[in-house]
Amino acid sequence: MCRNIQDLFNYDLPATDEEIRAAALQFVRKVSGMRKPSKANEDAFNQAVDEIAQATTTLLNSLTTKAPPKNREEEIAKHRARNAKRFGNN
């Protein structure tokens, strides 16, 4: 899994359209192998991002859980602590 794609489900504040689009963009970049498409591929690239963002929104709106919502700040702190342990403090 690409480490840049963020977990977007079950947070105290729902994922924003910008967060969903950013995740879709990262996915399309990973799958296509392109950071920025050529002019010839730009329309197909952008269409894929739009479709994946829409599918992600549909998915997130359809999911249910009994788990309590996660707090974004707490999750960020956990990720930073895990990275510090893994990579050391720089």
Topology (SSEs and partners):
Layout: H1 17-32, H2 39-62, H3 72-87
Overview of the molecule:
With 90 residues, this protein is mainly α. It has one domain. The protein has 3 helices and no strands. Helix 1 crosses helix 2. The longest helix is centred in the middle third of the chain and has 24 residues, at 39-62. The protein is flat. The model has no long low-confidence stretch (mean pLDDT 91).
Short description:
The protein has 90 residues and is mostly helical.
The Rg value, from CA coordinates, equals 16 Å
- N- and C-termini, Cα separation: 25 Å
Proportion of strand residues: under 5%
The largest pleated sheet is described as:
none
Poorly predicted ranges (pLDDT <50, ≥5 residues)?
none
Give the mean pLDDT.
Answer: 91
How many distinct domains? Answer: 1
Gross geometry: flat
Name the structural class: mainly alpha
Number of helices: 3
What are the key terms here?
90 residues; mainly alpha
